[in-house]
Design goal:
Number of helices: 8
Radius of gyration: 18 Å
Strand order of the largest sheet: 9-17-16-11-12-13-14-10
Largest sheet: 8 strands, mixed
Distance between the termini: 25 Å
Helix content: 25-40%
Low-confidence stretches: 1-13
Length: 323
């Protein structure tokens, strides 16, 4: 059974809260829940959003700076909550990652999110916020470019983002057969994001249950031994064994490529489900946006990864061709 909220968003029997798709002319609000940003790159990324047909609202607060944060915790959280309350705003993009979104998880007004679901897009440090929103409300969130990274995004990534958020099909994505670590086929809710943030959410109430999930992992700037340490932590905590499959995105600037490959294979070879690397998502280009929460499928024999459950509330074609 599905339940429809006052704004038209749909919550289904699986507990997913699907936001409405964007339409041309819809307004995007910009928040800075984490670190301060470079104004030039921000302006370039904002211009790209507006060129895609979406006017933007950028509250004055997001330009604040408090050391390594984009303002005080209470101010960043207030801006976030206010954007959710603004009926003009149909989607929220994050200005930048960096660090700091974890600090406001207990200040977010999750009831506002339930009352008026919106598209929310971010990655890197924002993994914490995306997963907390999904865990607490069931909201489908989107792991994708922040405003500053849009300055570098390739045309394929921009087209994918636009189509994804407006309800047009973008899946399935191809999997490189040379990057298959463990063969197989599986389905499950797509969850995950930045590896460091996943580890830091452990033992908090904000990490979703990974049982039966396809776990997406990406990373940047971590040496192979640190990647090994984090994967080992997930394994020892019993989190990896709960997953149905694993898909790896970009591992940008993570040291020697051969050493990194050895770490990934050493930790994930022997996993009970399919494992594929090389998904073009996360730090790096392109950073293809992915919906977190709905069911996905990973099929290494067909070399395809895609969605088998809609992630927006009103388009029957979002998931693309079945496979």
């Amino acid at each position: 059974m599905n339940a429809t909220g006052r704004d038209g968003a749909v919550t289904d029997f699986s507990g997913l809260l699907r936001p409405p798709p964007l339409r041309p002319g819809d307004t995007i609000g910009v928040a800075a829940p984490a670190g301060p940003f470079d104004p030039e790159r921000f302006d370039f990324g904002r211009a790209r959003l507006e060129a895609m047909g979406f006017p933007t609202v950028c509250p004055d607060q997001i330009y604040e700076r408090d050391g390594f944060l984009a303002g005080r915790d209470e101010d960043r959280a207030r801006t976030w909550n206010d954007l959710w309350s603004d009926p003009r705003i149909k989607a929220i993009f994050c200005a930048r990652g960096g660090y700091g979104s974890m600090r406001i998880l207990d200040l977010v007004d999750y009831e506002r999110v339930r009352a008026d679901p919106k598209i929310v897009v971010g990655f890197s440090d924002l993994t914490a916020l995306l997963l907390a929103l999904h865990q607490t409300t069931g909201l489908v969130c989107f792991h994708g470019p922040v405003v500053t990274s849009l300055a570098d995004e390739e045309e394929d990534g921009l087209d994918h983002l636009t189509r994804l958020l407006t309800g047009l099909p973008v899946f399935p994505l191809e999997i490189d057969p040379d990057r298959v670590l463990m063969p197989g086929r599986t389905e499950g809710p797509l969850l995950g994001g930045n590896l460091t943030m996943l580890v830091h959410l452990m033992a908090t109430p904000w990490l979703p249950d990974l049982s039966g999930a396809i776990l997406f992992i990406e990373e940047t700037g971590e040496a192979p031994y640190r990647v090994d340490r984090m994967l080992t932590t997930l394994r020892l905590a019993g989190l990896l064994e709960r997953c149905a499959g694993i898909v790896l995105g970009h591992f940008e600037n993570c040291g020697d490529a051969e050493a990194l490959e050895g770490v990934l294979r050493g930790n994930l070879a022997g996993f009970h489900g399919p494992v594929a690397a090389g998904l073009p998502a996360g730090h790096g280009r392109p950073n293809l946006a992915l919906p977190l929460g709905p069911r996905a499928v990973l099929d290494t024999e067909l070399g395809l990864f895609g969605m088998v459950e809609n992630y927006l509330d009103s388009s029957p074609t979002q998931v693309g061709p079945a496979f």
